[in-house]
Amino acid sequence: MKTTTEQLYQLFAQHPVISTDTRKIAPGSLFFALKGEKFDANTFAQHAVDAGAAYAIIDNPEYAIDDRFLLVNDVLTALQDLARYHRSQLNIPIIGLTGTNGKTTTKELINAVLSQKFKTLATQGNLNNHIGVPLTILTINNTHEMAVIEMGANHQKEIALLCSIAQPTHGLITNVGKAHLEGFGGVEGVKKGKGELYDYLATPGAERFAFVNSDDKILLEMQQARSLKNVIYYGNNANPNNMVSGKLLDNSPYLTLKWHDKTCSSYNVKSQLTGSYNLDNILAAICIGRFFGLDSDEIDQGVEGYQPKNNRSQIMQTATNTLICDFYNANPSSMFVAIENMDKVQANRKVMILGDMFEMGTESAVEHTAVIQKALSAHVDERIFIGKDFSSQQTEVDNANLISTTFYLTAEDAMIGIKQNPITNATVLIKGSRGMTLERLVGLF
């Protein structure tokens, strides 16, 4: 007999910890035997129980040895349904956010701000997909007063699925740009995919809210096309409809900004973030904090206390250089704003090291050439491009413009070249897709 979602939930109430990795089995947990590209975790079910799991949820009857092995039609669907059912039992605000760039940084900022007043749960790391979101939802317990759920996608309909699980009462799209073009089918596909969050928030009969950057024309068009009713605006302009507005005061290299709300009171706050593009992310967190009733001191403490991690807009000081570590991921949109920021940074010597962008599909050649041209127009002292996609476009650039510019086919080649020509007394931007593993370069500076 197959186990129903309601029966699973009764067991979850007694064993409220989920395990999916037999190497990290929590005693008394529920083990979900998820399938991977190269493995079938049904085969590990016995090991999970032996290691301390109370029950193993499986979808292959061959492994249902005794009543500790619970059979379902599909383990992944069972996990998602369990999370969806758990969410329906919760009566707290859940803020769902997605976007091309800045999702994780914005999520962390929102969490840092809201945590000044509320017991807040936020997505850990990059658990933002069809497995990570349900796992995150299932960690919410009755001590939490709200949650911030990051939702990532590289295909259409993914955000719609994640919304059906997380059921956000509030939502935010950071921006829409050029990322995962291969999976989404171009920029219009990205807009449609990210817009699925607005679609959910616009569902008739539900009281849901959207936080929208009033400076972003694309987001405004997307919001207006869906006739969202409860919209809270923020931005760095003088839009009178903004709940919160702000402007950048300093970026050398940390951001200092001035912000004000509709009371016209203004406040200065210094962050530990670099990159002028993070102004919008900070303002989003401030706006959400204001919306939920935090005072200016609580908001400022949250912003000032947030320290970026995981190589996202992270400053690292070495003996002779200042590194801007932004190599967790990269796409044309994030590359452009990083280059523009580097152009504005005040430093005696500036070096840009850019690695290939992945998942560009048929647009790869065009987009890598565009990034090269953008980098060549920036006021920096040296440019280094790493990867086969950048290297293959070198011939598309006028060689007369390639002054103080070097191309390396691999990161290993770049490491050899940098060792032979050390970079010292400089501010260095390192940015590329995660698969380039550019963190290997850090030790050279």
Overall 3D geometry?
A: globular
Q: What is the CATH superfamily label of the largest domain?
A: Mur-like, catalytic domain
N-C termini distance:
61 Å
- What is the CATH domain class of the largest domain? Alpha Beta
Question: DSSP strand (E) fraction?
Answer: 15-25%
Structure description:
By secondary structure, this protein is α/β, with parallel strands linked by helices. It has 3 domains: 5-74, 3-Layer(aba) Sandwich (Udp-n-acetylmuramoylalanyl-d-glutamate--2,6- Diaminopimelate Ligase, Chain: A, domain 1); 90-305, Mur-like, catalytic domain (UDP-N-acetylmuramoyl-L-alanine:D-glutamate ligase), CATH 3.40.1190.10; 314-444, Protein-Tyrosine Phosphatase, Chain A (Alpha-Beta Complex), CATH 3.90.190.20. Helices cover 33% and strands 21% of the residues. It has 16 helices and 19 strands. It has helices at 5-14, 45-50, 75-88, 103-114, 132-137, 158-166, 181-184, 187-194, 196-201, 217-225, 278-291, 296-305, 332-344, 364-377, 388-391, 411-420, and strands spanning 18-19, 30-32, 55-58, 69-71, 94-98, 120-122, 146-150, 170-173, 209-213, 230-235, 242-251, 254-261, 266-274, 314-317, 322-325, 350-355, 382-386, 405-408, 427-431.
Topology:
Layout: H1 5-14, E1 18-19, E2 30-32, H2 45-50, E3 55-58, E4 69-71, H3 75-88, E5 94-98, H4 103-114, E6 120-122, H5 132-137, E7 146-150, H6 158-166, E8 170-173, H7 181-184, H8 187-194, H9 196-201, E9 209-213, H10 217-225, E10 230-235, E11 242-251, E12 254-261, E13 266-274, H11 278-291, H12 296-305, E14 314-317, E15 322-325, H13 332-344, E16 350-355, H14 364-377, E17 382-386, H15 388-391, E18 405-408, H16 411-420, E19 427-431
Parallel strand pairs: 1-2, 2-3, 3-4, 5-7, 5-8, 6-7, 8-9, 9-10, 10-11, 15-19, 16-17, 16-19, 17-18
Antiparallel strand pairs: 11-12, 12-13, 14-15
